[in-house]
Amino acid sequence: PPTADMANKGPAYGMSRDVQAKIEKKYDEELEDRLVEWIVAQCGAGVGRPERGRLGFQVWLKNGIVLSQLVNSLYPSGSKPVKIPDTPPTMVFKQMEQIAQFLKAAEDYGVVKTDVFQTVDLFEAKDMAAVQRTLMALGSLAVTKNDGNYHGDPNWFMKKAQEHKREFTESQLKEGKNVIGLQMGSNKGASQAGMSYGRP
Length: 200
Hints:
By secondary structure, the chain is mostly helical.
């Protein structure tokens, strides 16, 4: 049965219905449980809990407040990237603005652009799997940074590969310049003999 929040989407026919069905299949119910546990552990019980399922998860996150509290909780107190209004926004553009602020803060935190969902993915429940992907990337970064701001079980997320800085001495760097890489081939016996350009 259609619900009030689906009024802005007409019925999906044929191709778009198939595409939507595929996207919905990617949504992971078990992952939803883990993400809800993390968000509650990270932000405190004040954020509440969603009704189970894709739409419950969407409604819980839709106004952007829970997401904003989540990203703010990853920073030390005093340096919160997202401003949270005293009362949750009820106007559509304010809610979308709140989501957009979360997305910018997530990118600033280190989530790569390809892992960041679009506002409509969440707001219109177009791709809740993308929302899960963004939250997973955020959690993985928080565990990897290991700066004391992550709360919850570190095993909920995979650590991101850490950059490994290598230090070379000046003489090592000079030595490296004298080596011709094998992919360059060899220049022994090379000449331009027998080459002709253009028409003879």
